[in-house]
Structures are given as C-alpha cells and as structure tokens.
C-alpha cells in the first residue's frame, strides 16, 4: 500500500470534501482518501498494483477541481 498527497485547488466547502473523497473512495485500489479543506491536500492510500496516481488525478479533475 502506498500513501501520497495530492494538492487540489478549489475545494472550499464540506460538499467539495465529500465529492472528492467519494470519487476517490469509489475507485478500485483506493483504500482511503481524506481531504483537508484548509490546506487543499488530499491524502490517498492505495494499492499501486491496481491503480495509478494519474487515474486518481483524473477522478478528482472529473469532479471539477484542478490537481497540481
Ligand atoms: Mo461548496 Mo465546493 O458550495 O466546489 S461544493 S464550494
């Protein structure tokens, strides 16, 4: 299991947090995703044999946020 932190722009309210966490947690290979609204950081714990960082970035972007 790997842990990485994504820097996401534009998350400001609790619904943003839910959308991003929901999108990531729904992906096969992601075990946990946690958004910190104050810092804009998203901590993801994932199985690198099942999912790439790029796929996770895309899932966040599909929700309408920019990933640095
Ligand atoms: Mo809240 Mo987030 O009204 O894009 S859902 S700011």
TrEMBL record:
- InterPro entries per UniProt: CopZ (IPR049740), Heavy-metal-associated_CS (IPR017969), HMA_Cu_ion-bd (IPR006122), HMA_dom (IPR006121), HMA_dom_sf (IPR036163), MerP/CopZ (IPR001802)
Subcellular location(s) of the protein: Cytoplasm
Q: What is the taxonomic lineage of the source species?
A: Bacteria, Bacillati, Bacillota, Bacilli, Bacillales
Could you list this entry's UniProt keywords, alphabetically sorted.
Chaperone, Copper, Cytoplasm, Metal-binding
UniProt-listed NCBIfam families: chaper_CopZ_Bs, copper ion binding protein
* Record SUPFAM superfamilies: HMA, heavy metal-associated domain
Q: Which organism is it from?
A: Virgibacillus phasianinus
Indicate what this protein is called per its UniProt record: Copper chaperone CopZ
Residues in HMA domain copies: 2-68
Q: What GO molecular function terms would the record report?
A: copper ion binding
Pfam entry (one)? HMA
Indicate whether Chaperone appears among the record's keywords: yes
- Tell me, in one coarse class, where this protein mainly resides: cytoplasm
One GO cellular component from the entry? cytoplasm
Q: Which domain of life does the UniProt lineage start with?
A: Bacteria
